[in-house]
Amino acid sequence: MENNSLKKTILYQNHIKLGAKMVPFSGFYMPLQYTSSLKEHMSVRELAGIFDVSHMGKLILKGKDSKKLIQYLTTNDFSKIKIGQAQYTCFINEKGGIIDDLIIYKILNEKLLLIVNASNIEKNKIWINNYIKKNTLNVKLFDLSQKYSLLSIQGPLSLFYLQKLTNITLDKIPFYHFKIGELSGIKKILISSTGYTGSKGIEIYIPNKYTEKIWNDILKIKKIIPCGIASRNSLRLEMGYRLYGKDISEEITPIEAGLSWIIKFEKNFIARNILKEQKKTKKYKKFISFIVKERSNIPREGYSLIDINDNTIGYITSGIFSPVLKKGIGLGYLYDKYMYKKKDPIFFSVKKKKVPISIVKLPFIKNFN
Hints:
Layout: E1 7-8, H1 12-17, E2 21-25, E3 28-33, H2 37-46, E4 48-52, E5 57-62, H3 66-73, E6 86-92, E7 98-108, E8 111-116, H4 121-134, E9 140-143, E10 148-154, H5 158-162, E11 178-183, E12 186-192, E13 201-207, H6 208-219, E14 224-226, H7 229-239, H8 272-281, E15 286-292, E16 304-306, E17 312-322, E18 327-334, E19 346-350, E20 353-359
Parallel strand pairs: 1-3, 4-14
Antiparallel strand pairs: 2-3, 4-10, 5-8, 5-9, 6-7, 7-8, 10-13, 11-12, 12-13, 15-18, 15-20, 16-17, 16-19, 17-18, 19-20
Helix pairs in contact: 2-7
């Protein structure tokens, strides 16, 4: 029975016609997979695939104080971003916890596009508007989430396949930059060199009335197959990308999440002193990425991490069997009271069994482009 409380993207019926298995995700009906998650995963690693990620939030900030607001509410340094560039960053609360991770596009000096997680749209809007009102800033917030669609085309051959649909030279768009131009005969389409898979690709922002045409035109390129959220999850995990609600939350700071690279202490921002102290004292839980030594065991969210003496020392936030590595991989946290040393054996616990793991650096895979 259909859940009427769930939203649908413009392409919902297209997904149904393509045989997708639809599941609830972040308040939307989303395609889990069309054929098999393994086939879709490997298509993105070897050729190209297309994802409907229109559920993502699309917020516009306009006004002369837009940059001032973003500089204070996020950890990265947006002052270094020029028109035509984008930046990965995060909103944090007064305690330093991650409200959301997001990408900000600088459309104009006084016009910014914020791409936020679907489940956090309303929370972000309240957070931003409260700060605007409290500080009487010259900024207006517009929510375009239901007016625009977002398609992500990813894979080593994605740009080659798509080039025939646009007059923009796709392979000349640097990583985390964007161009606005014509695609599939439609003008003023924002095309960005971003993605969530670790493979080469682009993301395109489309007014809803043109979404179905562009989706169908892309699928006429037979080498590009539609992909669901199951393969999107396994692809992001092979790169070690954090997922909000699993690997990061308001209870976790960007330092704890291993995201110190998006914290710029030379600027002033909310909870700056708290994060500075946390970094100094090193008293916080530690983010880890690991490979499972035994092929037959797959790590799962919620499994406990234990030491040689069966003491619980942490927990797993995400885990899968990697289609590329043919091994289990996962992300998680070690409690701050546990002083990990490189030679310490670590396991995860499943059905009273101790499964050995090896902590490794991210990404899990390399050189797929």
